[in-house]
Amino acid sequence: MEIPLDESDRRLLDLLQQDAKLSVQELARGAGMSASPAWRRVRRLEEQGLIRGYVALLDPAGLGLHVAAYVHVCLLDHTEETIRRFDEFVQREEQVLECATITGSDDFILRVVARDPEGLEQFLMRRLLSLGIVRSTTTNFVLRQTKMTTRLPLP
Question: Would you say residue 1 has pLDDT above 90?
């Protein structure tokens, strides 16, 4: 369900997408309002589910995760059991940062991180393919990332 936003809501959301650690006073100042209405608006946006949470964005290389790849996955079949097993696998694997069902010849695309190419190979061979439900995978290594954002455009 789309949630109607006014200009103040958009300004607050834009500020939070830039820096979720801003204090209520800083948010209010940036949105051109006083602290109490700003706090109430943010609280309402949280309660409505538009703000789903707050996170710290970490540097993968600083954590020793030097490899990123997109893995296209085609399942053996599309039974409820196979899809459930795949979904459970994706949810428990920390190396999988994103998973989406896609159109085209493949069923899913995963964004995966690893320490090195060997770590990615181990993930693919010993974890993903050993499930016994994957027909094929195609892996695209990320050579250089020119843009990565979590910031959504606001209508």
Answer: no
